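Troubleshooting log. The previous run stalled partway through. Resubmitting the same two chains, unchanged.
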Amino acid sequence: MELTRPRVGLFVTCLVDLFRPSVGFASVKLLEEAGCNVEVPENQTCCGQPAFNSGDRKDTADIARAVIKTFSAFDYVVAPSGSCAGMIKAHYPELFAPGSADRQAADALAEKAYELVSFLVRVMKQEKVDARFDGTVTYHDSCSGLRELGVRAEPRKLLRTVEGLDIVELEDAEVCCGFGGTFCVKYPDISNVMVAKKTKKIAATKADLLLAGDLGCLMNMAGKLKREGASLKVRHVAEILAGDTAMPPIAEAE
Amino acid sequence: MEQQASEFPANVKRAIADSQLQWAMTETGPRFIEKRAKARANLPEFDALRDQARDIKDHVLSHLDLYLERYEAKVVQSGGQVHWAETTQEARAAIISICKRLDAKLATKGKSMISEEIGLNHALEQAGITPVETDLGEYLIQIRGEAPSHIIAPAVHLSRDQIEADFRKAHTHLDPNRDLTEIPTLVEEARQVLRQKYLDADVGITGANFLIAETGTSIIVTNEGNGDLTQTLPRAHIVIASIEKIVPTLEDATTILRVLARSATGQDFANYTTFSTGPRRPEDPDGPNEYHVVILDNGRSNVLGTEFQDMLRCIRCGACLNHCPVYQAVGGHAYGWVYPGPIGSVVTPALIGIEKARHLPNASTFCGRCEEVCPMRIPLPRLLRHWREQEFEKHLTPGAVRWGLSVWAFFAKRPKLYQFGTRIAARLLNLMGGRKGKLASLPLAQGWTQYRDMPVPQGRTFQAMWKERKRG
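Second attempt completed without errors. Output:
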């Protein structure tokens, strides 16, 4: 029996929109291949984390209301980021008073909000991907995806089905890379100690490619690796799962 | 104790440049994490115990007045005295007045964070009473004139070499040619020096991990047994504890004890768990003649019933420090006061004011590892965020940050304008560094490019490309 294809609203995320559209297209490809009808509402900007994490509740609530309104008609809202999906799922409801109409709408959206890779595995029951990558990769578990959404097994499960790909585990993969949104520019010295510890562990894996599910963390680690002159490349996990490596890796020209 | 929490950015720079500190942190940090993980794995009901422990403390906090009164009645019944101190000044005065009445000259001390919080050692010295710390770590930082850098391991920032040098400087009565290369010899020397102090002390001062309402008992948990000698040998035992240390029953205390040591050091139980109820009774072979408990508020009751109340569940195990990548990067002294790490960044603003401590709640990536390991399930990231909200509401956030945020929010709420802006930004940044794929320096982003390259956008925004694709 052919089930109806779920209607998925892609929450692109502000970083993917501005820095790396290829991650957005890889996400669309993966979702469509998994059997979803994907739409990308034009009326979206950012999930509101910069305001939320700066203590600005009012602007956060305004932005959250707009996101809720834009995506409430979809069966699911999916983001190629654990951090933005976590914001919608774990934090939007707490912005509004229990029992209020806003809260009900936030709860309803939270219920159907997912990070991309965990959505493919948990909801679309995807067992494998149709992609090839010849090389060794290592994976960093971004904090929000890992601790707010419990995403850990899913990216590894799908990566193991990429032809030609070997995974080597990163020591301390669950330790923060030091990005933290505005943290990395507010406390650059601390952030630098954290990311330098991370790149040391990454180098120790001798992998060809570093993957993660959040562009913020990836830009931080890639920026540090390039500054250190590392030859290892960095990409978003969606690009490899979609077999879409036409664009140069993060912080590379080709 | 002098507060330097407002100097956080400068403290951080110093800490990061301190290679000795950085070495010490990399040596000890991972060990705490491994030991806790092992202890947790060995106890299948560990997470269920965390829930119970949380519920016990939540219950206490919603009936705190009742349990405090019950506790006092039991202390009095067993022959002891309770002294209520609303402020640190009142707490110091209560302790000094007991010491003066007893004409005390020497006070031995068990490890107590509240003693640090009220600046007790300095006050005792001013009053002509010599305090001697008997916990090895506290003794070390006392002879160095430092504050603790960790809640349970006050001298975790020191190396063996530093300790040897400090001992040679402090213990001038000992043979200068003695061998102190091994850690056991350092411990033995401290033991020798302290042994006589226990016997000479007039008063013994300890903290308390728990105060038990049903029995009027105070409990201390130590690994060195120093607390026992501190509280049994002198004429008077003074306990200094804060109001939230109360638990209703012995059973409740033992439930929480099962998660305490496991979270702190990875031990199933600390080496010594000592229960003290009242002064020496006629039939007792030893013990103090007087038993006093000084109970400190210092702003904690203001936290009750607020969004910050959960912080009062803390049992000071230090697990959040051990698992915090920020603490591990800068050490405890950078936080500038008594309580470092995630719990310090939550507690310090409550005790000294967010105005003086505004950096601390901001110095977090909200990675959430602290909450993940907290035995009392304190939602630390959420509490840190609440402090940022207070900071924002009170207009303590720096003007430039506030301005930047309001400009960003203006656009974020207007998708058409926002996308117009991002299309330009993507193009511009790409032109600036597209050929290399990265920028080594970028105006207004020095915080980023000082240490890392800025990856360059691919050139067009996703929204613009998607629109084009839809049009076919």
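Takeaways: The beta strands of chain A are 7-10, 37-39, 76-79, 113-115, 132-139, 163-167, 209-212, 233-236. Chain A is about 45% helix and 15% strand.
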